[in-house]
Write a structure and sequence with these properties.
This protein is an alpha/beta fold. The protein folds into two domains: 118 residues; 144 residues, no CATH class. It is 33% helix and 19% strand. The chain contains ten helices and 15 strands. The strands form four sheets. The protein has a five-stranded mixed β-sheet with strand order 7-13-14-9-10. Strands 1-2-6-5 form a four-stranded antiparallel β-sheet. The chain is elongated.
């Protein structure tokens, strides 16, 4: 009767060890929600170690070397914007290569254990943002000139303010635009040379002879701010159902191809410190946008599914409200995605 119990105990021990390894691996990789990259390195103590202390030291060195290797793999695959990855920058810019190497070497050890079977396991982490030895500090170039946010397009009526997470549109199935006016609105050559995921809003009607665009005199900041209605604390762009791909340098644009939010509009030090946006998968984690966020629904994605596209009416609302409370300048932006 003792043998089955021994076998059962051994099986349980193996199962627990396997579960521990699986759990460790599951927490690895790029975590866009918490803005960190986490890896686990492992090594086995050499059998010819002269004592326990040497065995532990050699196993620790091997585990950290394994963790550095895995960090490099994950970091190289991080998308900076569109299809541009860290690896692309490393291979083309020596300064980025040296900075990324220093970031990897400066990884933080958050947990380490030496087990009785001679295995040494170490968990290490690099922040995507945060200033001190973050990946953003290694790959972003300082922009010394901050570009102003664009003016609203008053040829299109501005949408009403909203804090609702329910979409205001009844989107058609995801297909590329095929009508002449749709091609004009989403000029793929101007937006990017690549795939474009589109959900067409129901309000966009065919126009046979569009009226010529009139020149509108630029209003002052005070004029725009006076048009604001919501006293909003931030912006939530609802990208659910569009397969948004997180990147370090996202852009929000409207359906005319105008960029209304990008790194050129923002302070470099703020980007390095906190990132340009939070990526969350539920409406309970939008605290970055404050307790009264303006909520808009993305109608499409561009630049290899990395940049949300919003209706012109919504981009007008975003820009007008931003003049009042400056939430874009303060990087109070959240992307809600699946």
């Amino acid at each position: 009767m003792k043998l089955p119990k021994i076998l059962m105990a051994a099986a349980v021990a193996i199962l627990l060890a396997t579960c521990a390894v699986v759990a460790a691996k599951a927490s690895e990789g790029v975590d866009w929600r918490n803005q960190v990259i986490t890896v686990t390195g492992e090594s086995v103590a050499p059998p010819n170690a002269i004592n326990q202390a040497q065995a532990k030291a050699l196993a620790s060195r091997g585990a950290k070397a394994d963790a550095y290797r895995r960090l490099a793999e994950f970091i190289n695959g991080v998308r900076v914007e569109g299809e541009t990855t860290v690896e692309n920058l490393v291979t083309t810019k020596d300064t980025v290569k040296l900075s990324v190497a220093a970031t990897i070497k400066g990884a933080i050890v958050i947990d380490e254990n030496f087990f009785s079977d001679g295995i040494y396991r170490v968990k290490m982490q690099v922040p995507l943002f945060g200033g001190n030895n973050s990946l953003a500090g290694a790959v972003f170039e300082r922009n010394y000139t901050v570009e102003p946010f664009p003016d609203p397009d008053f040829d299109v009526e501005t949408s009403a303010p909203s804090q609702s997470y329910q979409p205001r549109y009844s989107p058609a199935p995801t297909t590329p635009y095929r009508s002449p006016i749709s091609r004009m609105a989403f000029d793929l050559q101007n937006l990017q040379s690549g795939a474009l995921t589109v959900q067409e809003p129901i309000y966009r009607q065919p126009i046979t002879n569009p009226a010529p665009r009139q020149q509108v005199q630029r209003k002052s900041v005070a004029d725009y701010a006076a048009m604001a209605k919501g006293d909003y604390t931030g912006l939530v762009v609802d990208c659910r159902g569009l397969e948004l791909q997180p990147v370090m340098s996202p852009v929000i644009m409207n359906s005319n191809g105008t960029k209304i939010y990008g790194h050129k509009n923002l302070d470099y030090d703020k980007i390095i410190s906190m990132g340009m946006a939070d990526y969350v998968d539920d409406t309970e984690n939008t605290s970055r946008a404050g307790d009264k966020p303006l909520v808009v629904k993305a109608v499409a994605l561009t630049n290899f599914n990395s940049n949300p596209v919003v209706a012109i009416s919504d981009s007008n609302r975003i820009l007008i409200e931003n003049y009042a409370t400056k939430f874009l300048k303060d990087l109070k932006v959240v992307f809600l995605f699946d």
